[in-house]
Predict the structure.
Amino acid sequence: MKSGSRTLFSMLCITALAVLFCSHAAFAKSRLKGSVQNYLMWQMPGSNVPFPVYVYSGKVQVDYLYSSSQQAIIGPYNVDKTSGTYSLFYESDDGWHGCSVALLAGNIDISNTNCQGAVINRPVTNSNVYTLALAAKAWPLSAPPRGTPEKTDYGKRKITFVNKTPYSMIQIGEACTQVVNPNNPKCTNTQNLFQIKKGGSAFLMVDDATQEGSNFPAGLISASFYLSAYKNSAGQIISTGGYGPGQKPYATKIELTALPVTTSGGYQAPTGATNCDVSLVDGYNMGVTVYPQTGTYCTYTVPPESSNILGAGSYGPATSLFGFPVTAATSLPQLCQASSQLPAQYTGKDTKWSLSLMNGKNFLGCYSPCTYAGAKEEAGKDLFCCTGSYITPATCDQKPGQEGANTSTYVSKLQNTSKNMYRFAYDDAIGDFACPAETNLVVIFQ
């Protein structure tokens, strides 16, 4: 999966450089077109300011900064209106140090700012994220911040699964890359992680000790969760979408990377943001909605993905990160039946692949063209899986009307029925999100 790599380069977001162009550039325009909400993010200096840094607005602590590469959104930003004052503190051997930044009508209020070098940098091309940067100079000695500054607890991260399906029971499976999760019992390959009754929920704490006796959470890297079975109206357990040995997976897949926590200067700090995406690359078997448990700011890569340019948005229970299907009227069996490997209005001689998987009248799921080609040993597997000679976007992406992973009706039908979900190998830039490291996620199967 790509979550780990996305998180690693998201840490470099504030130093984005050149834009490389590929077929996904249109996604940047569509995501940021119209009336765009801009956001302002801290850009802490990489030297001379020790971490952690505590940020206050008035008498209230509003942020905890652990790294110069942290994606810490201050809030919405209007270039003509945003005002406010922020006090920043850190503690070193000789006591507390602090400085203040004041904003007035969208600009630095110099007369009320004593953080040296404070400047607001404009976004790079296609992004909506401004940065408030400070000079790499030690701050002056100051009185300590009000009360006891709070350090974020990264040992309580969790993912909650909710059964809002028509089924009296659903079963959740997990597929995890164990080689990158040494000694972490939360990384497991199982078809039966949870069984959840209709209307009920279950949660997984993603953190565990890196090694016996350690107090520093190991996180959970490259873990995927999916619906592996459900109980139908006749009381039968219907297995579906498995990722077990010898199986051809097709489930709607929730991918998560909550990076480990290490120590630095005597305090705990995660090695990066919590990354999440939802993949329909293998296929789908259930609708899902995913959102942060409490409102937060998450960033996403503005295509092309390798440029590290990012956008940001506000997400929570009222504004989900991912949704599929996006309308209650969408029937997954009907959607699958109307989909194939062929482009829309195809007039050639190739036969339409039937992607639906049924067990009698029970809908199991829908193969993607890639999974179907692998299961049926079709000659077009490389083209629909973007492997072999089609391994890059430049070679895998096809022109309209030509057969390929990106032009299939499987993909085009999903464009209007899914929100921020990637559908083929080089499509994940539209739905690869990095949220604050402490973010708890809620996954609703529906």
